[in-house]
Design a protein that fits this description.
With 199 residues, this protein is of the alpha+beta class. The chain is built from seven helices and seven strands.
């Protein structure tokens, strides 16, 4: 596992879907994950310390853990299978460590509320992570081409265009602007989406 932090929550210009950008601690490697608008809003509210009148779903989950004398230790992005990211909530209950299956978006919304570490499996970072140095520097003729992620290989083999929008977004992402605050997209009508690329 490698530790990551939430770098930003963004909106794709091509389809208006949300994407959270995780950045590896002490490295310039990024992990983009598609998330739904509700989860994007939940993460952004916590990141910007916006006060809400009543507890939202992730606030309720945090309050439940506290009331049950349980403590969220960390959250994890553990795997990427069939274009879907999988995560865990790691919870300490009376000294016993429990791993609870979770969508990464929900896990991240919990992490920013509980101020706990976010970890990503090294295999996930190697498969779906992007390196700005590789993306920004021209390739020398003698240099080997950068390794394609497994999901890109699967797309070519199956002749599928399911990840075409995902690839297009990653190729055109402006890594210099990742530290800038996201645009206000609160006027967008919400529609729940899983933590996976749009078909």
């Amino acid at each position: 596992m490698v530790e990551v932090v939430i770098d930003s929550v963004r909106v794709s210009l091509t389809n208006q879907q949300r994407i959270v950008i995780l950045r590896e601690v002490d490295a310039e490697r990024y992990l983009p994950i598609w998330i739904g608008p509700y989860e994007a809003e939940a993460i952004t509210i916590a990141l910007q310390d916006i006060e809400v009148a009543r507890p939202q779903t992730h606030d309720l989950m945090k309050n439940l853990l506290t009331s049950l004398n349980a403590r969220l230790v960390r959250v994890e992005v553990v795997s990427l299978k069939d274009d879907v990211f999988y995560g865990n909530l790691v919870v300490d209950v009376d000294g016993k460590i429990l791993e609870i299956d979770s969508r990464p978006s929900d896990a991240l919304a919990m992490a920013v509320r509980a101020h706990v570490p976010i970890l990503a499996a090294r295999e996930v970072m190697e498969t779906a992570g992007i390196l700005p140095e590789q993306d920004m520097q021209p390739h020398e003729p003698s240099a080997p081409a950068p390794r394609k992620p497994e999901w890109a290989k699967a797309e070519e083999e199956e002749g599928s265009d399911r990840l075409e929008v995902y690839e297009d977004f990653l190729q055109n992402i402006d890594l210099d602007s990742l530290s800038k605050p996201p645009d206000d997209d609160s006027s967008e009508p919400p529609s729940s989406e899983p933590d996976e690329p749009s078909p």
